[in-house]
Sequence to fold (234 residues):
Amino acid sequence: MNNNLLQIKIKQRLNKLGSFDYDNIECWMIQEAFNKAQLEWVRRRLHGLNALKESSEQSVTVVDDLQILLTEIELRGAEKQKYFETNSIPANYLHFVRISAKAKTECCPARSFVSIYQAEEANVDILLGDNFKQPSFEWAETFCTILGDKIRIYTDGKFTVQDSRLVYYRKPKDIQILGCTNIETGHTFTTNVECELKDDICEIIVDEAAAILAGDIESMNQYQREVQNAQRNS
Fold:
């Protein structure tokens, strides 16, 4: 969906196509509301707060809706006494999916982990002391945590980590409307950046963005209608 159509649809939902009164909707308001709405929509899909309680990859529909946001990157970092600590995760990181890596010891060649599961930082000492859950080169299993925007893959000093890769859901790209003001910098956007999600999803997000704007201008009839539309189609 291009940005011109997106703006027309939102103004139409708010009955503002020909409005020049005190609550006329400007392009930066549409841009901010849409970017807020699409991020909130993605987070709900990932965390299962929709009517069907589906979280990421629990249905074909959710997989299809969010596949464009799945990203894989190589992780670099440094070995510590009990874990491998990566460099800072990307700024567009939104939700953890999985991490893969290889383990190596002095006597054995590198082998891929069968399982690296995410654990709570509060349980690290308990897991390291549990014979069934502590890092194991023989069973090719270990756990990881996220702390301070860095990932720690625990080794307990038994092996070293190589070729680690992270798969995650990134944040959706913010739309940019040509000629509209960037409210963070005060400069004007010189290019269009359109919504990268599918058109059917954009239609839902248009309703959610319209609901945000309707609430801002205290237009309760439009607010209730757009909230109902977004909920019905999620």
Q: What stands out?
A: Helices lie at 3-13, 27-47, 60-66, 124-128, 199-216, 220-233. Strands lie at 70-74, 77-79, 83-86, 93-104, 111-112, 115-118, 141-147, 150-154, 160-170. The radius of gyration is 23 Å.
